[in-house]
């Protein structure tokens, strides 16, 4: 199996619902995102997927979130905008963009860093 990872970033604000602490107030982060995909095969060029394709997709997703209040964006207008929920959302967005990749790729992990020392990850639990 081949694993490819790209990183991206965006800046946004959020307020955690029902948190009971200072993060319930509006605050912002400079988020860093790492997306890892897997492929079982390579194409005729010897690539699982061009890194540029992965970076472009991640960039489009990050641009939608950049300099925004996450609580106002779907699905976070009803889903608590935690790092964990953000990681799963980003995974789903990447999965939908990579659905027709040839050879096929799967999103394996999305890690979201809200600060230099704190991250949350969503990981695909399905067997290859």
From TrEMBL:
UniProt record, GO biological process: tRNA queuosine(34) biosynthetic process
Ranges in a coiled coil: none
Annotated Gene3D superfamilies: 6-pyruvoyl tetrahydropterin synthase/QueD
Pathway it works in: Purine metabolism; 7-cyano-7-deazaguanine biosynthesis
Superkingdom, natural source: Bacteria
Sorted UniProt keywords: Lyase, Metal-binding, Queuosine biosynthesis, Zinc
Cofactor annotation remark: Binds 1 zinc ion per subunit.
Catalytic reaction(s) noted: 7,8-dihydroneopterin 3'-triphosphate + H2O = 6-carboxy-5,6,7,8-tetrahydropterin + triphosphate + acetaldehyde + 2 H(+)
InterPro entries, per the entry: 6-PTP_synth/QueD (IPR007115), 6-PTP_synth/QueD_sf (IPR038418)
Active site feature: 23, 67, 114
A single MF term (Gene Ontology): metal ion binding
E.C. designation(s): 4.-.-.-
Cofactor annotation: Zn(2+)
Annotated positions binding Zn(2+): 14, 27, 29
PANTHER family: 6-CARBOXY-5,6,7,8-TETRAHYDROPTERIN SYNTHASE, PYRUVOYL TETRAHYDROBIOPTERIN SYNTHASE
Family: Belongs to the PTPS family. QueD subfamily.
Name by which UniProt lists this protein: 6-carboxy-5,6,7,8-tetrahydropterin synthase
Organism placement in taxonomy: Bacteria, Candidatus Coatesiibacteriota
């Amino acid at each position: 199996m081949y694993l490819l990872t790209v990183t991206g970033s965006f800046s946004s604000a959020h307020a955690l619902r029902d948190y009971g602490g200072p993060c319930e107030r509006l605050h912002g982060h400079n988020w860093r995102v790492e997306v890892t995909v897997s492929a079982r095969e390579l194409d005729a060029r010897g690539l699982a997927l061009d890194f540029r394709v992965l970076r472009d997709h991640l960039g489009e997703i990050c641009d939608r979130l950049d300099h925004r209040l996450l609580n106002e964006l779907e699905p976070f207008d009803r889903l608590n905008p935690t790092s964990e929920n953000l990681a799963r959302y980003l995974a789903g967005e990447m999965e939908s963009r990579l659905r027709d990749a040839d050879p096929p790729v799967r999103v394996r992990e999305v890690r979201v860093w809200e600060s230099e020392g704190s991250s949350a990850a969503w990981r695909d639990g399905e067997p290859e």
